[in-house]
Amino acid sequence: MAAAAATMVSSAGGLLAMLNESHPQLKFHALSNLISFVDQFWPEISTSVPIIESLYEDEEFGQHQRQLAALLVSKVFYYLGELNDSLSYALGAGPLFEVSEDSDYIHTLLAKAIDEYASLRSKAAASSDDAAKIDPRLEAIVERMLDKYVELAFLPDENILELVLLSYCSSFRCIMDGKYQQAMGTAIDCQRLDKLEEAITRSDNVHGTLAYSINVSHSFVYRREYRQEVLRLLVKVYQQLPSPDYLTICQCLMFLYEPEGVANILEKLLCSENKEDALLAFQVAFDLVENEHQAFLLNVRDRLTAPKSLPSESVQPGSSDPASAQNENSTAPEDVQMTDGSSAVTTNVPEADPKEVMYAERLTIIKGILSGETSIQLTLQFLYSHNKSDLLILKTIKQSVEMRNSVCHSATIYANAIMHAGTTVDTFLRDNLDWLSRATNWAKFSATAGLGVIHRGHLQQGRSLMAPYLPQGGAGGGGSPYSEGGALYALGLIHANHGEGIKQFLRDSLRSTNVEVIQHGACLGLGLAALGTADEEIYDDIKTVLYTDSAVAGEAAGISMGLLMVGTASEKASEMLAYAHETQHEKIIRGLALGIALTVYGREEEADTLIEQMTQDQDPILRYGGMYALALAYRGTANNKAIRQLLHFAVSDVSDDVRRTAVLALGFVLYSEPEQTPRIVSLLSESYNLHVRYGAALAVGISCAGTGLSEAISLLEPLTSDVVDFVRQGALIAMAMVMIQINEASDSHVGTFRRQLEKIILDKHEDTMSKMGAILASGILDAGGRNVTIRLLSKTKHDKVTALVGLAVFSQFWYWYPLIYFVSLSFSPTAFIGLNYNLKVPRFEFLSHAKPSLFEYSKPTTVPTTTSAVKLPTAVLSTSAKAKARAKKEAEPKANAEKSSGAESSSAAPNTGKGKSSSEKDGEAMQVDSPPEKKAEPEPLFEILTNPARVVPAQEKFIKFLEDSRYVPVKSAPSGFVLLRDLRPNEQEVLSLTDAPTSTASAAGGSAAGQQSSSSAMAVDVEPQPP
Description:
By secondary structure, the chain is mainly alpha-helical. It contains 54 helices and nine strands.
């Protein structure tokens, strides 16, 4: 009947007239019916809104009637598009505004209410004001809705279908476990941690909801302080579970900087008699090491308690036993090793507790992991044994570079160091000692420092490797100060972020010299070795150098202070800023500007005061530092406020340096969302200002490094042929960073880019700046023997401190070329390295479910390709061709009398270069004749990989573990260091990586490279620097 009546009504005029009646019952009747017809007649009702509003405000009118009037006005304003007014009156409607109703009106106003509530909560938290300013009616609506979501999450599935429409956020509906995620997302957005905890604990999949909450907190919570509150709550919930996820808990505790909590968890796992708990502890340690936070890791290591009941003399055998077991008893089962260890201890101290012996052994292993030594040693072995660097590329570059061009000469040395980073292979240097000896002054400094990149991670022999170049006998030896300074810088690069063993030597070297070049190298080396440790004594030593007011040493001192204090938000920053205002040297101001920016790394809104101070400074160099402070404080957060500020400076500052850096800084802020960067800087890449174009190129390179993103490549391609030489340089370097570890089979642009680099390098008329960019790009493309990528995020989505700091300082090469070597800090090995209980690398197979060609190494260059490229343009006249044919006929009778091979060689001799190259090509084709037979078969759709294996980032999603394998990973990770459970411990193990590097390291260098790398001392004695 009601529906029939509704169809008969053609106007709301009669009901609106009743609103003017004096009797309250008539008004109530009119309001009740108008609510039913508002969807149809809202245009007509809108003319009487003032009357309905007056009814709502009339205190003599009944409460229910007033709420009815408020609801009616709210709906009219909703249809008029006035959502703020609509929400305001909806709050006045009280319980009549039913959050469970399924209508567009309710959905829209709920979304509006939540946005308003979340905004008010954020403002209250940011300004430390009392949250009582929030309208209690708004809070009541949000409360009702959150309660409804939590109830909704636990209804039976048959009731969920219509009620799930209550969610205001449609993006969650497609998630399989979406029953509770609406409540969680809304609770986090509204900063209601009590509701978040309720939604998680009542969920039927607590681990899944916790993982989802962590992801949301990292991706969508922009205030650092609030993010920490969320993570503390999640850690509390995790620890209440019967089987906590210790891997995730420790990652959260690292973000919260709570080393005590991590140490307690590790101790608990190490004391367990279950070997799987010990494996889990080792895996936790490796995951923490991947985040590269040296100070935190050392803090955790030092908090681990020593074995209690073992006397001091018995700890020594216990602690050294795992090391000897690793070297000598590698093929024996783990239990045999432990009994050997315990027997060794019991012979000294019969009353020793076997549990304490076991704990001592495990403690030694985990301390080695936390110090970084274990992962560095394994990485060094992997990069050495899998080295595929192409020496022919370097040879081509060396031959094409003019003798007098010192920039390209140095660039070639940089490229060689980057190409062999961490491989310990310095064949190219030792084969070209005469060519290398042309390096003088700062070029000599860079050449010596390059050895630090090549031997990075060679912690045990780093100092002996550099011994010939280090300052001899206190205040200086007989060598060049440039090579001595370079050697100290090299030591810092070798021990970067792991400098416990070298810090004291570098401090002594810094104190004992007054030569600014040596001070420069020592400051950089100290900053690298003591990265982020905030060591006060080292800081005082560097400050003493700074106060000498030497431009060269002062610049390195400023950067080094920042490296030392990275992420501490230390009050030392104001001290550095004060000195930057006092000194007259631009180099010192620039070094300090970058150093101050490094101190606020990752501090987000906590750094706003300092950022404001720097960005408003009159000195453009300090404003330039302010851009880096913005970039590093908000690294990887994609924070809208930071992006807005950077874009503002990119288009409005009067200094080109500041504008360039502002655009470049976008790359650091956006690296967690690389697909966004090309879109944001696309217009800037077309700017009339050449510095802005350069910044746009490097921003894309930094943000999209190692992704091979097609949008990034499309943006960079036109910039590689820009009219300005240094823009081309930046674009070439950025393109190499994007394409690192991508081969031609997976992206045809890679082959085109490699040919473009070769063309630029061989072109005698190319500008020096762009040629330098091409040389460096060649090194970055093949970095680390083609086994590393640039990775700024760890697999657990935490930022890699060393990598980000390395790229920030690397981008300073615009002013100072030796800082190019800092790019090596951002290199991560593209490796899967599975480890057993003894941290040995057993041989086992796993599956890459993709065509092998997609992820194989890039094809090595060949001599015929190069020669043919040069000689192809040679023209051959028809008369010459006839003469050659005639000569060939005359030679045939003589050839018949000789051997066929001799005849072929003599007939090939009169041919031109073109003929030679074609015959060489034929010969080469004959050598490659066996693969074509295989190519006739279709390429397999998968590949079996053997531990340890090269696994590039794009390949990770295709990695699968075999079901019948002897080893099962503790956590399912497609790359990195993964601990393996041995399902057949009684069988003998076959190991892959050995302690002594094998001679298969250098594909290009052959046996010479193998000999060179296996004997470090020989590498030192024959090293390049002349006296």
